[in-house]
Structure formats: structure tokens, C-alpha cells
């Protein structure tokens, strides 16, 4: 039975405590990005460039942080991002994060690469749950995942398109991290792995190797037809892609650089957000993740055009430190930090958050 350790006053305290409670290799794997972690640092730096501008004398007594997102009525705009292999952090893995999401009314996005099956996660979670899809090499397997997600009551599909190739984190390599043999993707049990490709002389390990199953626009159009559930796209950083995805019929987009894990030197998600909001217009659903470590960070993303934000590493740090209780506590702290920022900035509702609520920090 986990309990909340002393010294957790803010959501970000779980990051500090996770360093102490996690095995060094596992911590490096979770905390790291790819390469030199420059995109990880960029995500944090982008939030630090902005300050929240306080306003005086506004009546906040009817204030709230409620939001309707993809047909779900949520008490706050903080979602749990899809994070693979949660058993690396805690024996209860995604069952614990699902319980925490249910306890706090948070929408959970379950990863294709979860340690528990999507059915087990659904049974532990509240009604607000989406399923993150990695398109499978065989379309039959993708169709199977879609049918399972629908049967298990997931309300939407989040297809991640930015991770067909991910170079390793130097920090995780230096710490000697390798995925333990028992760390398997429970959802994909029974799907035979695709046949390895014999590379010819002169063929590239990247283009003809890792990228041979990378999704294309044809695959996305196929998915939009085939999915019984609304499809969101995760991993958008370019306004032109955003426009094209909106026109293709996606339910909404997630501005994300995969927490800096796909391309070192990718721009920060937050930096790209205003241009993407401008590209898709004021009313199109747009979420953001990457670098959110506080309610103030969430507020800044909302002010710059996101409808809601997702939290990746913080949920894993809280899970490692204190299991389901820790994740629920971390979410509660984030919500309070967000509501305090709204109240200080004179925003009674999320609709009041605009770029005018921010000013450069120095
Ligand atoms: C991820 N992320 C991720 N994204 C996804 O679409 N499917 C997945 O299975 C995973 N797995 C995963 C594992 C680990 C260890 C991490 C840290 C991240 C990316 C995740 O959804 C999100 O985009 C980032 O984590 C957001 O950045 P922060 O909040 O971690 O800074």
C-alpha cells in the first residue's frame, strides 16, 4: 500500500522524488528524450519564457475549470498522456493510473504499448478514456485493436504519427538501460511480428529498415474510414500538416514533439502552438503536451491556444513514488495550481484564457 511521502507540495515534487525511488536505468529511460535531450530541454524552456499576468478585482466566485472535449464533460482540462510500459514504474502499472484518472475525473489515454491490456485498463478507469493507436504493420491487426477499443468503451482513437523512428536517449544508454524481457506490450500478444526485411547492399537501415512500416497519408485516410470512433492525431508540429489533417476529417489534433523522444532538435510543442492554432481556426479542438510540470504551465498552454493539455512523465514519476494514490494526488495538485493561476489572471473559465493573459517572463 503506497502513501503520499512528505515533501510533496507541488505536482513537480514527484519528479524530484522519482529520482530517488526509481532504478537509475528506468528513470533515465523515462526522463530522457532522444540523443542529447535538447528537445526535452526546449519544452521546458518554452514554458519558462512566459509569465502569467495577474489581474485585479475580478469576481471569481462562479469560476471553474470545466470543459467539454470530444463529447466528454470533464472537471478540468488535464489528461493523462499515453505512456508505454508502465510496469517499469510500478507493479500495478496502468491499472493504477486508470484508477487515479477515475478518482479525479481525468481523461486517460491508454497506450497501444501498455503493460496491461486495454480491456483491463478500461475496467479500472472511469468513463473518460481514449485509446492511443500505433498503426500496425498488418491492417487486420489495426482493425482488431479498433474493434477492441470500441468494445471496451473507449470514446476516441488517438493515432500517434511522430514516432516511426526514435533514436535512443544517450542518458538511457549511458545508464545501461534495456527493456526487461517481461516488459511486453500486452495488447499485441498474439499478433505475430512482421517478417524482418533483409537489407540489400546500399539500402538504408533507416529508410528501408525502421521506416518501412511508417504510416503515410494513404494509411491515415484508410484509418479515418475504418475507425468506428473519432480519430485524433498526436504528434503535430507543422501548421501545414495541421491544416491538412483538419481537412481530412480528424476530430482534433495534439501538438506534441513526443516529449522530445522522437527528434532531438525538434521545436518545443508550446513554441509551435500559436501558429497551429492560427492555421486551424479558433474552434477546432487542439491539445498540447510536452514539458507540462505545473498548473501554471497548463495555463500558459491554454492561453496560447490549447483546449486541454496532456501530462506524460509527471504521471510516471507519481506512479513510481506512490502508485495510484500518487497519480491522483499529482493530478489534484495540478488542478489546484491551474485554478490558482486562472483566479490570479482573472479568468473565471477556460474560455477567458487568451494570449493577453501572458507576458514575456524577462
Ligand atoms: C511516451 N509517449 C508516448 N506517446 C504515445 O503516443 N505512445 C506511447 O506509447 C508513448 N510512450 C511513452 C513512454 C515514455 C516513457 C514517455 C516519457 C513518453 C509520449 C507521451 O505521450 C507525451 O507525448 C510526452 O510524454 C509529453 O511530454 P512530457 O509531459 O513527458 O514532458
UniProtKB/TrEMBL annotation:
Its cofactor is FMN. Transmembrane segments: none annotated. This is Alpha-hydroxy acid oxidase. Residues 3-362 form the FMN hydroxy acid dehydrogenase domain. One of its GO terms (molecular function) is oxidoreductase activity. InterPro entries: Aldolase_TIM (IPR013785), Alpha-hydoxy_acid_DH_FMN (IPR012133), FMN-dep_DH (IPR000262), FMN_HAD (IPR037396). PANTHER family: 2-HYDROXYACID OXIDASE 1 (PTHR10578:SF107), S -2-HYDROXY-ACID OXIDASE-RELATED (PTHR10578). The keyword tRNA-binding does not apply. Keywords: Flavoprotein, FMN, Oxidoreductase. CDD domains: alpha_hydroxyacid_oxid_FMN. Its EC number is 1.-.-.-.
Amino acid at each position: 500500500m503506497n502513501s503520499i511521502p512528505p515533501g510533496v507540495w507541488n505536482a513537480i515534487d514527484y519528479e524530484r522524488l522519482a529520482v530517488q525511488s526509481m532504478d537509475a536505468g528506468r528513470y533515465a529511460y523515462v526522463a530522457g528524450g532522444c540523443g542529447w535531450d535538447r528537445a526535452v530541454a526546449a519544452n521546458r524552456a518554452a514554458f519558462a519564457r512566459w509569465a502569467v499576468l495577474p489581474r485585479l478585482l475580478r469576481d471569481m466566485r462562479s469560476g471553474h475549470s470545466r470543459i467539454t472535449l470530444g463529447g466528454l464533460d470533464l472537471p478540468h482540462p488535464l489528461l493523462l498522456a499515453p505512456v508505454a510500459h508502465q510496469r517499469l514504474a510500478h507493479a500495478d502499472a496502468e491499472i493504477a493510473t486508470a484508477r487515479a484518472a477515475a478518482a479525479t475525473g481525468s481523461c486517460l489515454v491508454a497506450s497501444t504499448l501498455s503493460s496491461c491490456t486495454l480491456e483491463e485498463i478500461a475496467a479500472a478507469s472511469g468513463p473518460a478514456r481514449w485509446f492511443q493507436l500505433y498503426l500496425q504493420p498488418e491492417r487486420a491487426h489495426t482493425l482488431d485493436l479498433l474493434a477492441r477499443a470500441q468494445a471496451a468503451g473507449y470514446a476516441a482513437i488517438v493515432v500517434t504519427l511522430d514516432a516511426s523512428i526514435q533514436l535512443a536517449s544517450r542518458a538511457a544508454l549511458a545508464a545501461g538501460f534495456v527493456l526487461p524481457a517481461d516488459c511486453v506490450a500486452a495488447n499485441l500478444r498474439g499478433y505475430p511480428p512482421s517478417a524482418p526485411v533483409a537489407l540489400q547492399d546500399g539500402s538504408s537501415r533507416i529508410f528501408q529498415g525502421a521506416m518501412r512500416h511508417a504510416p503515410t497519408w494513404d494509411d491515415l485516410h484508410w484509418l479515418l474510414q475504418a475507425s468506428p470512433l473519432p480519430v485524433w492525431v498526436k504528434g503535430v508540429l507543422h501548421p501545414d500538416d495541421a491544416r491538412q489533417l483538419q481537412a481530412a476529417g480528424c476530430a482534433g489534433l495534439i501538438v506534441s514533439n513526443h516529449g522530445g523522444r522522437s527528434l532531438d532538435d525538434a521545436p518545443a510543442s508550446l513554441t509551435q502552438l500559436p501558429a497551429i492554432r492560427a492555421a486551424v481556426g479558433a474552434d477546432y479542438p487542439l491539445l498540447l503536451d510536452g514539458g507540462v510540470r505545473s498548473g501554471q504551465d497548463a495555463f500558459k498552454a491554454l492561453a496560447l491556444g490549447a483546449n486541454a493539455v496532456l501530462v506524460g512523465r509527471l504521471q510516471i514519476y507519481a506512479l513510481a513514488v506512490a502508485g495510484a494514490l500518487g497519480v491522483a494526488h499529482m493530478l489534484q495538485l495540478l488542478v489546484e495550481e491551474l485554478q490558482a493561476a486562472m483566479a490570479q489572471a482573472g479568468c473565471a473559465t477556460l474560455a477567458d484564457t487568451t494570449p493577453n493573459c501572458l507576458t514575456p517572463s524577462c
